[in-house]
Specification:
The chain is mainly beta. The protein is built from no helices and 22 strands. The strands form five sheets. Strands 1-4-7-12-15-18 form a six-stranded parallel beta sheet, with no helix packed on it. Strands 2-5-8-13-16-19 form a six-stranded parallel beta sheet, with no helix packed on it. Strand 10 and strand 11 form a beta hairpin. The protein is globular and about 50 Å long.
Length: 179
């Protein structure tokens, strides 16, 4: 079982389930098995959160969830939005698969991320590479990028990302439910 904080490189065991964890530090790799049968899952927040430079994530299968209480809400792209006469938290607060924050030169390669609002969130990053990932069945954004530069996104697939909701005008929408 992986602990709550990962500070050194590791390889995940085939066909095992791992609860959400945080990577803290530089030059750390988390690598799944060749068949990508190990699963990292989260019921709330992000399955993997990483802070640091030179993070390498490969062959991971990440499963996240959108809370039923948030499933039909209008999405707020920003940290805080005001609609329906109140403030709403938004952006990365929705959670999802992988959240890279505050660093540079991370690589996420050949991974499958499904469920949750956000597939991969990049915040305050530079020079990251997203290569050959499958982002599916999300209720918000495939890639959420805020304050990033010199990013490389190559050969990623993004499928079935949609959200029905009740908008700020109290009308039902089948899709496009974000600020």
């Amino acid at each position: 079982e992986v602990g709550a904080v990962v500070t050194k490189s590791m390889r995940l065991c085939p066909a095992e389930y791992y609860r959400a964890f945080e990577i803290r530090g530089d030059s750390i790799a988390v690598i799944g098995d060749d068949a990508a049968s190990a699963v990292v899952y989260s019921e709330v927040g992000f399955a993997i959160t990483a802070r640091g430079n030179n993070i390498y994530l490969a062959r991971l299968h990440v499963i996240a969830q959108t809370l039923p209480s948030e499933a039909e809400h209008w999405l707020c792209l920003y940290d805080i939005c005001y609609f329906n006469s109140r403030l709403h938290q938004g952006g990365v607060a929705y959670g999802g698969g992988i959240w890279l924050q505050d660093g540079a030169n991370a690589t996420i390669v050949d991974s499958r991320i499904e469920g949750g609002a956000i597939g991969i969130a990049l915040q305050n990053r530079r020079g990251d590479r997203l290569i050959g990932n499958a982002l599916t069945d999300l209720t918000g954004w495939g890639v959420f990028a805020q304050n990033v530069a010199d990013e490389f996104w190559i050969d990623n697939s993004i499928e079935r990302i949609n959200r029905a909701c009740i908008g700020p005008d109290n009308r039902h929408y089948d899709s496009g439910c974000e600020t």
